[in-house]
Amino acid sequence: MKTSSELQAKLRSIDHRGYPAYKDLRGEYEFGGYVLSIDHVQGDPFAAPSRLSVHVPMAKAGFPKEYIGEKVKRITFQDHLTRLFAHEIRGGSFIAKGSGKSGLLAVSRCGQEVLERTACRADEKKIIVRFEAGFPANGRSVNAGELEKILFRILPDCVRKSLYFSNIDQKALASAIALCEDQQYIRDRLPQMGLCAFIADGAVLPRQSGVSDKPLQGAVPFCSPESLKVELVLPNRGKVSGMGIRKGVTLFVGGGYHGKSTVLQAIQDGVYNHIGGDGRELVITDESAVKLRAEDGRSIVNVDITPFISHLPNKKDTTHFTTEDASGSTSQAAGLMEAVESGCGLLLMDEDTSATNFMIRDRLMQEVVKSEEEPITPFIERVNGLYESRGISTILVAGSSGSYFHVADTIVQMKEYVPLDITAQAKAAADQFAVFRTAQAEFPAYSGKRCPKPDRRLLSEERIKIKTFGKDEVALAKNNVILRGLEQLKDEEQTRALGYALKALEEKQFNGMRTLVQAVDALEADLEKDGPEALFGRGEVAASLARPRRQELFACVNRYRGLAF
Ligand code: ADP
Ligand code: MG
Q1: d(Cα 298, Cα 323) in Å, to the nearest integer?
Q2: Across all residues in the chain, what is the average pLDDT?
Q3: What separation in Å is there between the alpha carbon of 472 and the centre of ligand 2?
């Protein structure tokens, strides 16, 4: 391996030369306590910044071995180091000057969730942190002095302050790991407690604003009604209490602006672990939960939606339903069937974002328009069967329709942000209203025999470039996949990873024989083994990615307009 002095000499020798001379710097250099690897060098000062990584031997970094043992600990450890490194590097960004992106230093920006990212990977041997640097330029020529400042002054300082156990706030790291261990502990215990979600007493659910995921100051803390209270003893925090949402059908009702949607949003985000201070640290949900909403205009390819929609007027086939432009109800029906295929155990729906005709048909409508003339079997007739025959629970927010009182196992009213268990009263009131049509018990088995064929048109591209547009859209060689309806997608790096995942599935898995489930299983096995880095195959880590959930992998594939069967 080359030494840092060799790098320094080489760097000085290319000073003032044309910018592409920087390419010669590629390689690994020993810096004493760590190895600096220059993985990819940008082509010009205005292009995407260069990609670098530092590799610190575990023996030198000195972190306790147990932090990289269990998966949840390792991921939290990696997340914490990324945050520490980000904090240090931010202070060093743009100290080195020049044109274009000269002097920029950046690593993945972590939000409220603790995600597995390519930014940091730790194992028994070493810690790798991947980041970006804008190699400084004077106009379009190399500015060696400024890059020397970055690589020999700023960076060593960032590494020293954030990646060595003796130099960091050890208590903060230990408590971050302990917290996530507690969160995972609750999630693992939900099934045996007969629960699909848990909201701890004292949790702060509302967020600062529609654009900030930080907790709202001065919010009313969550407090479970006595009848739904459960207690748990966590490995680190000890005894906690909170509302246990039981498996089956749970309904949240209440007046407008009383906090119903806020509870549901906290539950849908509870599939992820959160950092300390978030307020939702102990809001924990079955990790396969899917928030389902109407998504007019989405693409649907070959989905059996007959449990909800059959005999459409134009004789359109609903066992292999395909459309370039779904309606509210067909999009929600397909979304549900796709969620079932992905192995989802909990559906989350908010009346506000659902298609009304998918959710209910009121009595008067049933009276006037006979069911033979109505292609839709509303969700209300399926929700119990879905649980009884397939074990899939539902948590539903409904402000305006009382129909679901008949089918819900538990009914919670949000009153000025405080949950009240009104199951008994609501059921008694519902008994006064005869149900017109009773719920259907069986939920038909979903065939699950969807075997995607490779998209030849995509695969014939010379290079499949992946580009994200915020977290709501990703394009593979100009084929845009709209992911706006996926509320549980939290980070643009997850979106980018979905693009790479779709590419990997198309290139390696889809063959017309393997089912979608088998294809995603194979991809997930790689992700489980190697982290999101697996999405680059054996190639270099060419972008910052965060691991998406299985449910979003399915959802992204299903929204791809080049999907073929
Ligand atoms: P609903 O769905 O019942 O109409 P929302 O959940 O949208 O109500 O909440 C309405 C407003 O109340 C939002 O601005 C939200 O941030 C705020 N809010 C929700 N829960 C709390 C709480 N526990 N304390 C303070 N404000 C809250
Ligand atoms: Mg609402």
Answers
A1: 8
A2: 95
A3: 22
